[in-house]
Amino acid sequence: MKLSIRDTFRLRAFSFAKIPMLFFAGPSVVSLTDDECVIALPFQRRNKNHLGSMYFGALCIGADAAGGMIAARRLDQVKKGKGSLIFKDFQAKFFKRAEGKTLFTCRDGAMIRDAVRRAEESLERVETPVRVVATVPDRFGDEPVAEFILTLSLKVRR
What we know:
The protein is of the alpha+beta class. It has a single domain (5-156), classed as Hotdog Thioesterase (Thiol Ester Dehydrase, Chain A, Roll), CATH 3.10.129.10. 39% of the residues lie in helices and 32% in strands. The chain has five helices and six strands. A six-stranded antiparallel beta sheet has the order 1-2-4-5-6-3. Strand 1 (28-32) and strand 2 (37-41) form a beta hairpin. Helix 3 packs across helix 4 (109-122). The longest helix is centred in the middle third of the chain and has 24 residues, at 56-79. The chain is globular.
């Protein structure tokens, strides 16, 4: 698994300045394209619960980062910082205990691009659901340990 050093640096710099809890979890960007984002969260003491698996709050942080990176990148490309994003709601299904480095994958780039386009045209807040799947490849391969649906809320300013 090759990490994207530049994108990881950007994520960590942003999170250090704006979202310290995200920074504390130690995310890394594995890949970031217009269509897909994969974030890795390390399996370390600060991300574990009392049972020795990944704490659900850490899992939520990974889902947030994976779902938000595509939108943040697209907003930056389109409006150079003239947009904002936030998650309006959050649904999670946990299938197995995440007991290893966890990957969070969002493949909703096309929907996110469409939402940014609609927000740019209307200058109104636009919402779209974003799906993120968490896996622990070292233990379960591609089998999901959790699935998240986050409602992404975007607004573009002139």
